[in-house]
Design a protein that fits this description.
alpha/beta; FAD/NAD(P)-binding domain; Alpha-Beta Plaits; 3 domains; 14 helices; 17 strands; globular
Length: 454
């Protein structure tokens, strides 16, 4: 079978569906290709920031049925046990939404398939790319050839299209995520996504249906591989949980169904090659603690539909997604790694969020992708760094530990170098040299080795 279209999109997940809708609204003929349309029970993103909700409205989707039976997402409730702190970060303006992932995909796919100009090809698995033609294996049928002026890889982290155009697979594993679904529980702050920090990574909690709360537990790689993994996970997280959630989480972790996903980092550098563009996780991704992944992907889809050439698309999306990617990566390690510099940085962040409402709102705007300014991000980052240095000096003096002060200062200086180097344009990435992929990579890996012996 042969097909001809203006645009061929590989991957009919959320980002692929939005890309199909966005291109169809420009009058293009779209073929939407999906290898496994019946895959269910996937554990993936279930939160949209306001910018992503606006992106859905831009392609004609103004309501998500599976998000209508519970409160919209007003922002994040952040809590920590070291230092002891709790604060609410509100979205600056309209709220976001939460939902069960598979129901959300079903709705987007139905809307895309029903749109004029979109042809859906299920059970088509791309195996080759020859010029402007995709070669697909089709279940119980002969191979299909799909010719298109523009080919879009919306096929996620394990993108076949990315591989076929010769872009390296540069993913790095950060940790794993264990997913639980709790019934008949009440969150401390309904309408907020909860981010709870403790000994290692975060525990996330947010409502995805009227009577269902999703719990996401960040699990260090060495802990995931242990024979007593569930007991080790519980020992890591129990101190950071609110009393009302402790027993339900314990019972579901030990005796219920646990879904697993891997948390990876891939810098958002490569946006495609030639006539082939990449969107969403096929471009890059970061730790999901800030819930910004689909927001970035929807932004990719809309921008690509509005651009005639790949270079313009790449430049605009790099500028639009750099700030949330950098902030999510830095925040994850600041709170997941236990060391003198990260403790000082935690205190500095909480100082800013407690004492400076404008900077608290700006932090949320960075995380949500509504403020892409790298200059403003670096300005906030430098103010945080100054406060962190003060905490390092104060704590070292209190403990009479010069070594602690030196270690803390070196760690913070490393974060500054990482921030400044990450902010340079992709054309200057060779300036990175041997800079670690993340600001506290060495400390994080060492901490994971130590956790293996607990």
């Amino acid at each position: 079978m042969e097909y001809r279209a203006d645009v061929a999109i590989v991957g009919a997940g959320p980002v692929g569906c939005v890309a199909a809708l966005a291109h169809a609204r420009t009058g293009r003929k779209v073929v939407l290709i999906e290898a496994n349309p019946t895959r269910k029970n996937r554990f993936a993103g279930e939160l949209l920031h306001p910018a992503a909700v606006s992106a859905l409205s831009a392609v004609g989707i103004h309501s998500i049925p599976c998000a209508n039976d519970h409160l919209p997402n007003r922002g994040f409730a952040i809590s920590s046990v070291d230092p002891d702190f709790t604060t609410l970060l509100d979205h600056p303006g309209a709220p976001g939404i939460t939902f069960e992932f598979n129901h959300f995909v079903d709705h987007l796919r139905e809307r895309a398939i029903a749109t004029e100009g979109v042809q859906f090809l299920p059970h088509h698995r791309v195996v080759d790319l020859k010029g402007d033609t995709l070669v697909c294996k089709v279940r119980d049928e002969e191979d299909a050839l799909i010719r298109a002026d523009r080919i879009i890889g919306a096929d996620g982290r394990f993108s076949v299209i990315r591989k076929l155009i010769g872009i390296e697979d540069d993913r790095a594993v950060l940790s794993y995520m264990a997913g639980l679904l709790l019934k008949d529980v009440t969150l401390p702050h309904e309408g907020y996504g909860h981010v709870m920090w403790g000994k290692a990574g975060p525990v996330l909690a947010y409502r995805i249906e009227e009577n269902g709360v999703r719990i996401c537990i960040d699990v260090p790689t060495v802990v995931k591989k242990r024979k007593d993994a569930k007991e080790a996970i519980w020992n890591l997280i129990r101190e950071q949980l609110p009393e009302a959630l402790k027993q339900p989480i314990h019972d579901e972790l030990m005796n219920g169904k646990v879904l697993w996903a891997v948390n990876e980092l891939r810098p958002r550098i490569h946006y495609g090659r030639g006539r082939v563009a990449l969107v969403g996780d096929a471009v890059g991704h970061f730790h999901p603690m800030t819930g910004a992944g689909m927001t970035m992907g929807f932004g990719d889809a809309l921008e690509l539909a509005a651009c005639d050439d790949l270079e313009r698309y790449r430049a605009r999306r790099h500028a639009g997604s750099l700030s949330p990617a950098m902030l999510a990566t830095a925040l994850y390690e600041i709170f997941a790694v236990r060391s003198a510099p990260t403790l000082a940085l935690r205190k500095a962040i909480f100082d800013i969020w407690s004492e400076e409402p404008v900077l608290r709102e700006r932090s949320m705007a960075f995380l949500a992708g509504t403020d892409p300014s790298i200059t403003r991000l670096l300005n906030v980052g430098m103010r945080m760094v100054v406060r962190a240095f003060r905490h390092v000096v104060r704590d070292a003096a209190r403990d009479r530990d010069i070594g602690q002060g030196i270690d803390g200062s070196r760690g913070i200086a490393g974060l500054v170098r990482w921030l400044l180097t990450e902010a340079v344009p992709p054309s200057m990435q060779m300036l990175k040299g041997d800079l670690p992929l993340t600001p506290f990579e060495q400390r994080r890996l060492l901490q994971q080795q130590q956790l293996d012996h607990l």
